[in-house]
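can u do me a favor
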């Protein structure tokens, strides 16, 4: 699929339902679960319904899908179907449902099916979203070598970053090697006593059709953060605790929490210079049936303003609204 989209600026999408069918047929059909002399095997993808697409705008690629699957299975003494009513871009692996229907059944097949085969099916479903992007995303973008905008190029690179292992170190004990002939300096100040960048500030806001309490919890409660980041977050709703989001690409520290009113955090993109953090204050102002969320960002590296603001607009504001139905998405 060729694409004419200078700097990958405009919205482009690709229908991936055919690819999705091929993916599940290849990855699920033939999958087996075994225990003792009992083997249960997926024999067919009976049906696949729904939508699956990859989309890009301003260099950022996302996947949007909502699918329903029916699989056929059999063992030596039983056969039937597995109905999976929802496989969606915002479904957590533990939330997948597997409804079993037997044409004929024996006492041995069901436990093997649930304990040995379904965990393998769950793993395939979990890998679908990232694979969808990595296989199909390049079809809707100009090659990165042709992109001149540093903003869209940065978004493009982040779209394909696989989650990485986060090293468990404390932020306020960062180690900075100043020179090969100098000793290593351990800073006790989170952002360092010397600025790492020339910086500026940003302010913006958005209105959500929900209460301040719901919005506050959505930003700091791990189970809710997992839904809108579409990944397993490392975050605790405790003042002074560190957090890592989006597979470790965003990291920081919760400095101040005022329940349902304010969150103050130190925040950074992982490839920024070691020790540099932006201080972000999020204020929640609840009105009649809606809540205004205001962002004040201090210490944003000059030249990174558009990248930072667009990441908040796309990865925080837009995705939270889409995931929880908290308002119209433009």
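np, heres the sequence
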């Amino acid at each position: 699929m060729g694409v004419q989209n200078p700097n990958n600026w405009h919205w482009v999408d690709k229908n991936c339902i055919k690819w999705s069918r091929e993916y599940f047929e290849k990855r699920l059909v033939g999958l087996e679960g075994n225990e003792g002399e009992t083997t249960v095997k997926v024999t067919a993808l009976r049906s696949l319904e729904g939508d699956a697409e990859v989309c890009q705008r301003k260099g950022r690629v996302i996947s949007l899908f909502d699918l329903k699957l029916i699989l056929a299975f059999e063992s030596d003494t039983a056969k039937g179907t597995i109905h999976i009513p929802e496989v969606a871009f915002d479904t957590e692996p533990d939330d997948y449902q597997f409804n079993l229907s037997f044409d004929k059944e024996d006492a041995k097949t069901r436990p093997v099916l649930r304990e040995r085969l379904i965990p393998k099916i769950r793993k395939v479903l979990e890998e679908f979203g990232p694979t969808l992007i990595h296989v199909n995303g390049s079809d809707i973008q100009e090659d990165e070598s042709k992109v001149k905008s540093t903003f869209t190029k940065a978004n493009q690179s982040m779209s394909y970053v696989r989650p990485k292992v986060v090293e468990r170190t404390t932020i306020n004990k960062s180690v900075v090697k100043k020179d090969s002939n100098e000793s290593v300096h351990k800073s006790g100040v989170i952002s360092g006593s010397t600025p790492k960048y020339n910086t500026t500030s940003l302010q913006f806001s958005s209105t959500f059709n929900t209460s301040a309490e719901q919005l506050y919890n959505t930003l700091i409660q791990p189970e809710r953060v997992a839904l809108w980041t579409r990944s397993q977050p490392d975050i605790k709703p405790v003042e002074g605790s560190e957090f890592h989001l989006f597979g470790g690409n965003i990291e920081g520290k919760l400095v101040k929490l005022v329940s349902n009113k304010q969150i103050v955090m130190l925040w950074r993109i992982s490839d920024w210079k070691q020790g540099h953090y932006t201080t972000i204050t999020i204020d929640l102002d609840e009105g009649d049936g809606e809540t205004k969320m205001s962002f004040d960002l201090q210490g944003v590296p000059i030249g990174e303003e558009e990248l930072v603001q667009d990441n908040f607009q796309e990865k925080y504001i837009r995705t939270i609204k889409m995931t929880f139905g908290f308002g119209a998405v433009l």
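Confidence is low (pLDDT under 50) at residues 6-10, 147-195. hope that helps!!
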